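Annotators were shown the component list below and the corresponding predicted structure, then asked to write short factual statements about the assembly.
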Amino acid sequence: MTAAAGLAAAPVTRAAGARQLAGTGALLRLALRRDRVMAPVWMLVVSGIVLAMPGSLESVYATAAERSDAMESMNANSSMRAMYGPVFGDSVGALTAWRIGCYAGVLAAVMSLVIVVRHTRDEEETGRQEMLSAAVVGRRAPLSAALLAAFAADAGAGLLIALGMAGRGAAGAFALGIGVAGTGMLFAGVAAIAAQLTESARLAKGITAAVLGTAFVLRAAGDAGTADGSSPLTWLSPLGWQVNLRPYAGERWWVCALIGGAIAAQGLLAYALAGRRDVGMSFLPTRPGPARGRIATAGALALRLQRGSVLGWTAGFLLAGIVFGGMASGAADLVGENRNTRDIIERMGGSGGLTDAFLATVTGLFGMVAALYVVASVLRLHGEETSQRAEPVLAGAVGRLRWAAGHLVIAFGGTVLLMAACGLGMAVGHGEDTAAVVGASLSRLPAIWVLGGLAVLLVGACPKGAVAAWAVVGTCLAIGWVGPALDLPQGVMDLSPFGHLPKLPGAAMDWSPLLLLTLIAAALVAAGLAGLRRRDMTTG
Amino acid sequence: MTKAIEAVDVAGLHKSFGPTHALDGLDLHVGSGEVHGFLGPNGAGKSTAIRVLLGLLRADSGTARLLGGDPWADAVALHRRIAYVPGDVTLWRNLSGGEVIDLYGRLRGGLDRARRDELVERFELDPTKKGRTYSKGNRQKVALVAAFASDVDLLILDEPTSGLDPLMEEVFQSCVTEARGRGRTILLSSHILSEVETLCDRVSIIRKGRTVESGSLAELRHLTRTSVTAELTEPPGDLSALPGVHDLAVTDLAVVDPAVAERRGEGGPGHRVRFQVDTDKLGAVLTSLAGAGIRSLTSTPPTLEELFLRHYQDDVRDDAGAREGAMAR
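Structure shown to annotators:
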């Protein structure tokens, strides 16, 4: 036999499937190495918000009778069910699962989508995958490694939750851990499919986030209508499955099979797609563009680059505003004299009428999500710089301030658009108090701007640490999100700019914090721009 | 002052990134209307120097003048008069090549529309494709079309032809020649020596952030050496004693089997000498060789490559000599 025949024969002896997965181990090690800081931080945050909950619940509801009381009134209120899902039991464990389980699942989903897209489409878009795939790396190995990395992070977070909650009942603890981890894995699957469909990592993340948002709205709508999680809308949503797993309330283990089956089905679909396409290519084709361009200024370029994301965010805010606005009237279903419930709602940011309290809570949530938008948008400036795309633009007759201003107008102007859209949406859904609801929505802007200004300062004065803007906004979100339920000291609550805003609608209008925050934001932006003007541009 | 303003006038430029001295007293003078080659090994500081000239980096010390202005303070005004092509063009994935060309043109304050269309044609570029789908060479073409179609005084080209095929390289060279004909000044950083040799009036070679050689090619050639390979029937005597002879190697050809000699291109028993000689001492050395009975003689004039290699690395001269020998066969 000749050497050539021997070489040709060798691969045939191995199973085709094994060849497609060749190199998965090495790629997984690469992924874990690259995520060695990010993934553990995510896991700690996801499990931390759950494990912090029982203690605070116990301090609010000291006795079983109080918890039972709270459970009944919460479950009677369609708005509360929409926000958190139905309550299935009055144990501390069950209340923990109700209050935070779904949100921990959402966070796990975001973690998974970031990890999966980062190791699949991102690698292909940047061209790094080409070099990896030229080595002994099977067609499906990158996807396998990315999914395994995400699954490992999800399982780690779930395990931390299960271990931390085990003292309150092992079965419930594991159901809660499985629910959170399962939701994360489900959206790892969604991200894996989205990464096959589009050539852009940004778009793949956007698609997955849109699916996640839709899942939340479906569950919220379903649970607003029914008190036991049995609505078909709830069952349509993967987040509803997590609710229906019922940790600490007669766990329904068969739901695990549903979650597992869906994960497997998604994985198979993603594998099938991955095996049928070229590296770097996608199923959604890239259409040709115009041969001549009309973009004439740096500002127009920035608008062109960001318009898709601004439109997407605005549409999302409008729709979510309508949905949550529609739930607002349900807040009054609640039996008014229940002290504990009123306490809870007041803690969540409202003061005054229950409907106003609900609207104020939702408006606060929208404001915090808009802070994510403004940071992402400001960091586009940083992305343009580090990707070297800014260099030829700045080699044109474009001053740095003009170049930066183009993106900042969109970042800060976009927040106005977003908050106006969600305010209008809520007013439409709610059907009354249009001016008050829109005004409340817009009143969140100064705090959003402060976080945006902080991002500008980092990009301008300390570009190496620009991504720290995410850590800042994450901290503020955590304070606003779980701070009231955890009874954090006021000093900590005051760290977040959102804590200084009047709780509109309902509370008395107070202009001074709004003006002060706007001034702080303006100062931060000015300092950032001054830094940008003076420093060297980042080079490759 | 009667002297015309230099397009680029850099003296004693320093720039450090932490402990790295990217520029260590760089001098660079580009006269108005000339095509100036800017050479140096990877990491020599060429791109850093260009970024200082573009006002993207601020020099630590030294002076830099671009078209008579301060590249940092007058950046915007100066940039109306220059076009820049980086060595690695990154495009926005969702903008078409045509859109990017027009954008760059407008950002520089003007694009000759007819020339733009002609250049798109000549570079065989499809301007409707999106940024993501262009190959490396095609991304370069996008930036090149935008640069050559812009109505500017100075073109700063940083390894502009990386990834271009030989046909496109030719188009690029004719574009440079045309731009020169229109009185443009061109600063061309390049590793393609034939390109530099064909296009450039003057070159500057930099190494470790410092200029090591600068002048016209003729001037630089004069400073360098000619490689000579000769087969002699008689022993050559002590050539190394002659002034200007370097790297002498003498091979005895007597003992070789005729078949091997044939394969090696050797003409039979004798002596092969290989050496380099300072170009102005060439005549005297050849006279001396003639006495030893020249059977064959190859003399290679100094190439830019040799010049280049001499400055890139101190110990490559022997290798260069060996390569000359191989080419002579």
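Statements collected:
1. Chain B touches chain A through 46 residues (CB under 8 Å).
2. Residues 8-214 of chain B form a domain with the Rossmann fold fold (CATH 3.40.50.300).
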